[in-house]
Design a protein that fits this description.
216 residues, alpha/beta, Rossmann fold, 7-stranded mixed beta sheet, 8 helices, globular, binds S-adenosylmethionine
Amino acid sequence: MALPAFLSSRIATQAARPTGLFGGVLGRIMFFETARTNREAVDLLAPEDGDAILEVGYGHGRTLREIARRASVRLAGVDRSEAMRRQAAARNRTLVRSGRLDLRQGDVASLPFANDSFDRALCVHTLYFWPDLEAPLSELARVLVPEGVLVLGYRDKRDIQSFDRYPPPTYLFRSSEEIEAGLSSTGFGKLSTTRSPGPMPTCSTVATRLGTQDGA
Ligand SMILES: C[S@@+](CC[C@H](N)C(=O)[O-])C[C@H]1O[C@@H](n2cnc3c(N)ncnc32)[C@H](O)[C@@H]1O
């Protein structure tokens, strides 16, 4: 059953940048709703002891906690929502207190980190809210070391049956080919995309930041 237009528009705006009480509740719903795609993204990320890892659009912060459970890593996150920064900080209190997790509020198009700061980065269900891919992906390339790995988790536009829940222009869905083209033009290579079927199919694209010897 389709949601009333005012409600789907309100949910979409909140998913793009959660605020206040409604945003806090939505973060808790996403915690469950996006678990599978995030688990697949972490599998592909394959964190190793000693890595520095960045998550963009961490939302509820569950995925950062999952990565910390898998390996002894240094973590950082950037999300433009202050409500999500607070929720993720509460969920990851021990990691933040120990200095293993640096949680920031900020925008992917201007990441508050030096060049070559991270070995791996991931970003799940977030690129729909980027009006263009070039600035965000260039920033991700800048903060990754050469040969650093980026994992993107998202829904391909061909798999969206109904846009009722995902109204444009708040949501901007792209195909995996468009995502791969964006990655190729911003310094990434060795691209591979896998599709996870099911009632809500998702894609995961893994990319490597090319070094100077690769011609980037
Ligand atoms: C739909 S939620 C996904 C949260 C989590 N990654 C997941 O898969 O459950 C999208 C998150 O990305 C954040 N976000 C959207 N656009 C962003 C941007 N340009 N820079 C940083 N964060 C952004 C939002 O604030 C929100 O917390």
